[in-house]
């Protein structure tokens, strides 16, 4: 049997890439990056990961493409090779797969002079319906040759400002990471950087790991202990004879999950069906004939962040929320210039009125 390789698959804008998953230390949400002098132009900056400095590569610039805006949903894949760390900015981490070595083809060869980016590409492979470009981590981290980025396109009058640093643009003159970001956006990037910088030690006290999601412009925190994963949703398959808070069923890698809408439980107006994100959560839910733990999907507009909230930062639940929800809300905490309600998702999902009567 041919040996297999473990690959991390990720998206960068509209392209799909893969790399050796054994060299991936972890992935984190994009934080505020600190400029570094005399770095190659494709280095977007550095950040501190629990005391270790990590330089971050913007792959668009590394490949010689123009700079593109950074988004809150962007992630950094942290690679470790020969005791060195490097981060790659990616649009979304998709999955980890096992792929037969014989399924990987060498990169295409072109006539004439060797392509200037070929040394970064280890091969090509088909994964499902997609062609995935496999990157050579060793060359990414140690390769001495790198193309200079193309000049950025001129912004049209009235265009939305980019959150990205322009290709080849210096950080001097008092510039900051994402200089065109709003104060709220900058606060979120800064909070991420601060959380990653701090070592999680017992002396710092208890921390509450939370996924920060958005519904109708409001932030909510969901405990990571109940979260299995995040995924995209398009249009769920409707389920007959179900109450309005059940949007239908979604498929994920051969599994079906009931998709729930928390808006009614949170006193938010029900929105028209549209694409967004789903939080796949494990909790004790009342479906069918009894109470049992199962995985369900919770529809949200956006998944913004994963944070580790200090115990002392969790404030008491406002009296209005406490009267309406009781133990369903653990408290409130500041996030991105607003107050974020921290939900007790298992308690919300276990509401009596959410029982589905299958005999209807």
Provide structural commentary.
This protein has 360 residues and is mainly β. The protein folds into two domains: 4-152 and 168-183, CheA-289, Domain 4 (OB fold (Dihydrolipoamide Acetyltransferase, E2P), Beta Barrel); 203-354, OB fold (Dihydrolipoamide Acetyltransferase, E2P), CATH 2.40.50.180. 10% of the residues lie in helices and 42% in strands. The chain has five helices and 21 strands. The strands form four sheets. The chain has a six-stranded mixed sheet with strand order 8-1-2-11-10-9. A hairpin with a 2-residue loop joins strand 6 and strand 7. The longest helix has 15 residues, at 183-197. It is globular and about 65 Å long. The termini are far apart. Mean pLDDT is 76; it is low at 113-118, 144-174 and 287-291.
The total of beta strands comes to 21
In CATH terms, the superfamily of the largest domain is CheA-289, Domain 4
Can you give the mean pLDDT?
Answer: 76
Q: What general outline do the C-alpha atoms trace?
A: globular
Total number of distinct structural domains: 2
What percent of residues are in strands? 35-45%
Instruction: Give, in order, the helices and strands.
Output: EEEEEHEEEEEEHHEEEEEEEEHEEH
Instruction: Work out the helicity level.
Output: 10-25%
Core attributes:
OB fold (Dihydrolipoamide Acetyltransferase, E2P), six-stranded mixed sheet, 21 strands, mainly beta, globular, five-stranded mixed sheet
What is the element layout, followed by pairings?
Elements: E1 4-12, E2 15-20, E3 24-29, E4 43-49, E5 52-58, H1 59-62, E6 75-81, E7 84-90, E8 92-100, E9 104-105, E10 121-127, E11 130-135, H2 137-142, H3 183-197, E12 207-215, E13 218-223, E14 227-233, E15 246-252, E16 255-260, E17 276-287, E18 290-300, E19 302-310, H4 319-325, E20 329-335, E21 338-343, H5 345-349
């Amino acid at each position: 049997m041919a040996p297999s390789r473990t690959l991390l698959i990720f998206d960068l804008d509209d392209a799909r890439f893969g790399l050796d998953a054994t060299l991936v230390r972890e992935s984190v949400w994009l934080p505020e990056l600190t400029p570094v002098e005399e770095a190659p132009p494709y280095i977007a900056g550095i950040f501190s990961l629990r005391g270790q400095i990590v330089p971050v590569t913007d792959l668009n610039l590394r490949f010689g493409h123009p700079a593109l805006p950074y988004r809150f949903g962007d992630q950094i894949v942290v690679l470790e090779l020969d005791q060195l760390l490097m981060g790659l900015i990616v649009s979304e981490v998709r999955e980890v797969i096992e792929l037969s070595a014989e399924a990987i083809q060498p990169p295409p060869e072109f006539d004439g002079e060797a392509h200037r980016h070929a040394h970064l590409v280890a091969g090509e492979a088909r994964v499902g319906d997609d062609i995935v470009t496999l990157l050579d981590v060793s060359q990414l981290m140690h390769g001495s040759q790198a193309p200079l980025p193309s000049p950025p396109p001129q912004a049209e009058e009235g265009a939305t400002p980019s959150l990205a640093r322009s290709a080849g643009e210096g950080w001097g003159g008092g510039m900051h990471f994402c200089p065109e970001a709003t104060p709220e956006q900058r606060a979120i990037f800064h909070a991420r950087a601060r959380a990653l910088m701090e070592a999680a030690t017992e002396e710092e006290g208890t921390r509450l790991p939370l996924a920060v999601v958005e519904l109708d412009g409001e932030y909510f925190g969901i405990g990571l202990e109940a979260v299995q994963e995040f995924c995209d949703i398009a249009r769920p398959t409707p389920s007959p004879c179900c109450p309005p808070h059940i949007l239908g069923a979604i498929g994920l890698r051969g599994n079906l999950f009931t998709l729930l809408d928390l808006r009614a439980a949170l006193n938010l107006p029900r929105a028209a069906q549209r694409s967004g994100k789903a939080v796949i959560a494990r909790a004790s839910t009342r479906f069918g004939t009894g109470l049992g733990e199962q995985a369900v999907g919770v529809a949200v507009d956006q998944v913004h962040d994963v944070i580790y909230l200090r115990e002392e930062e969790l404030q008491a639940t406002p009296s209005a929320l406490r009267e309406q929800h009781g133990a369903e809300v653990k408290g409130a905490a500041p996030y991105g210039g607003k107050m974020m309600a921290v939900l007790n998702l298992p308690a919300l999902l276990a509401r009596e009125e959410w029982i589905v009567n299958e005999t209807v």
